[in-house]
Specification:
Strand content: 25-35%
Number of domains: 2
Order of helices and strands: EEEHEEEHHHEHEHEEHHEEEHEEEEHEEE
Radius of gyration: 24 Å
Shape: elongated
Number of helices: 10
Number of strands: 20
Bound molecules: adenosine-5'-diphosphate, magnesium ion
CATH topology of the largest domain: Rossmann fold
CATH class of the largest domain: Alpha Beta
Length: about 375
């Protein structure tokens, strides 16, 4: 068990692609750190740099006290688990689990004991004589995990290990992983593009966008106090709604919205005449007398426990990086951007209906219009 320290780490691939830009990050000894960000943001590259599978262009990587920036993978004492399990198909589960120990010339008796221990830990005892082809996806992923655990390395590096599993299995494997980490307490860096996975697994979560570290914090902190618009819109589902608002006469105005500015918000604005306003889907309620807005319902998604109401807001586009799931969907409004309100399951709402929503103005997030950085401390 040891900390992993990244100091101003950068990766430029030979073709000129800069995948990682000056990342500083400390993973504490025994910590479960999740790296999360959209596809192509540089997560795998960073993980492979820690493993020694990619050369580091500049900066330093330390594991424990050792500078391993230029060390060979085998000299870093880390174990990597990949998305495609990469099991040996012709070997039994027992031989797959023990392979690295065999290569490392571990004595037979010890090897047997360690494989048995890991198999017990992961519930694989009954399957030790099977081949990977005779296992379910979840069992195969357990074998891949087991293969990393059996080596008792200083750190685990995991690259989207659950993304090939179906949704239900992913949820149960998440719980298993958390338990496993509690028992073993080994420093772990876990990569995923799935913010729910990040929030449920990570003791801390590092959000990455375009090779740049955006924020590192405990999951609740990321949700409550996002450092910028990107983190605000990436964490939470559905995404936070954001719009460029004018600030005048004690009001935020954008599209059909006119919301009073609280004293705290006024202080945070420091005389700005515009700002990016953020409203989580749960900041809306049906009806109410104060801070109301009329919206035309463009789409409804009823999930049983809650429903999501989509409506258009004719506000000017914002000029900073966001991450909106709604952006991927075909446009359902004529102009402006799509907002989503999360309502209770009992609200009966129809497409095309005009709906009065009230806004909980204490739940307004504020960001600088030019940089996207938070204005709230
Ligand atoms: N071998 C490579 N050569 C050039 N560019 C690469 C290589 N591998 C990855 N990239 C690029 O680097 C960026 C980050 O990739 P990657 O680390 O795989 O992202 P992620 O794991 O977050 O999806 C992407 O733009 C990708 O196309
Ligand atoms: Mg990747």
């Amino acid at each position: 068990m040891a900390p992993i320290v990244l100091e101003d780490v950068t990766k430029v691939y030979p073709d000129g692609t800069t995948a990682v830009r000056g990342i500083d990050l400390t993973v504490n000894s025994g910590e479960f750190m999740v790296l999360v960000g959209p596809s192509g943001c540089g997560k795998s590259t960073l993980l492979r740099m820690i493993a020694g599978l990619e050369e580091t262009t500049s900066g330093r990587i330390l594991i424990g006290d050792a500078d391993v920036t230029s060390a060979a993978p085998r000299d870093r004492d880390v174990a990597m688990v990949f998305q495609n399990y990469a099991l040996y198909p012709h070997m039994s589960v027992r031989d797959n689990l023990g392979f690295s120990l065999k290569v490392g010339r571990t004595p037979k008796a010890e090897m047997r004991k360690r494989v048995d221990d890991v198999a017990t830990m992961l519930g694989l005892n009954e399957y030790l004589d099977r081949k990977p082809g005779q296992l379910s996806g979840g069992q195969r992923q357990r074998v891949a995990m087991g293969r990393a655990i059996v080596r008792e390395p200083t750190a685990y590096l995991m690259d989207e290990p659950l993304s090939n599993l179906d949704a239900k299995l992913r949820v149960s494997m998440r719980a298993e992983l958390t338990n496993l980490h509690k028992r073993l307490g080994v420093t772990t860096v876990y990569v995923t593009h799935d913010q729910v996975e990040a929030m449920t697994l990570g003791q801390r979560v590092a959000v990455i966008e375009d090779g740049t570290l955006q924020q590192v914090a405990h999951p609740q902190e990321l949700y409550r106090r996002p450092a910028n618009v990107f983190v605000a819109t990436f964490i939470g589902s559905p995404s936070m709604n954001v719009a460029q608002a004018a600030v005048a006469d004690g009001m935020f105005t954008f599209g059909q919205f006119a919301l009073p500015i609280t004293d705290t918000q006024q202080a945070a604005l420091k005389g700005r005449e515009s700002a990016i306003v953020g409203l989580r889907p749960e900041a809306f309620n049906v009806g109410g007398a104060e801070h109301t807005v009329e919206v035309e319902v463009a789409a409804v998604e009823n999930l049983g426990t809650e429903s999501h109401i989509f409506f258009g807001v004719d506000a000017p586009p914002i000029g900073v990086a966001t991450h909106h799931l709604a952006e991927d969907a075909p446009s359902i409004v004529d102009a402006g951007s799509v907002f989503i309100a999360r309502l209770g399951p009992d609200e009966l709402v129809a497409v095309g209906q005009t709906l009065t929503l009230s806004v909980d103005t204490r739940k307004v997030y504020l960001f600088d219009a030019a940089t996207g950085e938070t204005l709230l401390s």
